[in-house]
Each structure stands twice: as structure tokens, then as C-alpha cells.
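Progress note, sequence design subtask.
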């Protein structure tokens, strides 16, 4: 999947860090439970140096591809396996 607002490397980093916080296992989740929002995603984007305006644009694009909460970002964009090739995620 290609996002206009993140490079493949940034997307890979987002997914890896998010998977460390909200892990998907079968039908359930392990680690931090999903609160139905994008709080962890926003925090990670901020830690990557994204401005508040950039975070808003990225979140809007994530929602376009079905990422309305942290869990859905992982489910719809990939599990964020550290061994994933960033180019395969794009």
C-alpha cells in the first residue's frame, strides 16, 4: 500500500512501533488494548518529528484506507513485523 504522506521507511517504522504497543493475535489483541482511537499512532508520528499539521494529514489518509483506530491501522496496513521489507509495505 502506498501512502502519500509517509515514506515507505516511515510507514514501516510506524507499523513496527505500533505493533509493539498494540499487537494483533488471531481475533484478539495483546499488549495495550485498543481504545478505539489513534492515540498511539499520533504519539509515534510525533516522535518521528511530524508537525501537528502533518499528523492531521497522515491521520486523514490512514482513515481513507480504513485506519480509524490503532488496531485498524495494524490490520489494514500490515502487522509491522520488524523483518518486513519497507518496500513491500508500500
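Output:
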Amino acid at each position: 500500500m502506498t501512502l502519500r504522506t509517509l515514506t515507505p521507511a516511515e510507514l514501516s517504522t510506524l507499523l513496527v512501533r505500533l505493533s509493539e504497543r498494540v499487537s494483533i493475535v488471531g481475533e484478539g489483541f495483546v499488549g495495550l488494548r485498543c481504545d478505539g482511537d489513534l492515540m498511539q499512532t499520533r504519539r509515534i508520528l510525533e516522535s518521528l518529528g511530524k508537525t501537528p499539521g502533518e499528523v492531521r494529514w497522515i491521520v486523514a489518509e490512514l482513515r481513507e484506507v480504513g485506519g480509524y483506530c490503532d488496531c485498524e491501522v495494524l490490520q489494514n496496513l500490515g502487522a509491522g513485523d520488524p523483518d518486513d521489507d519497507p518496500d513491500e509495505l508500500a
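Confidence is low (pLDDT under 50) at residues 79-90. Work on this subtask will continue into the next period as scheduled.
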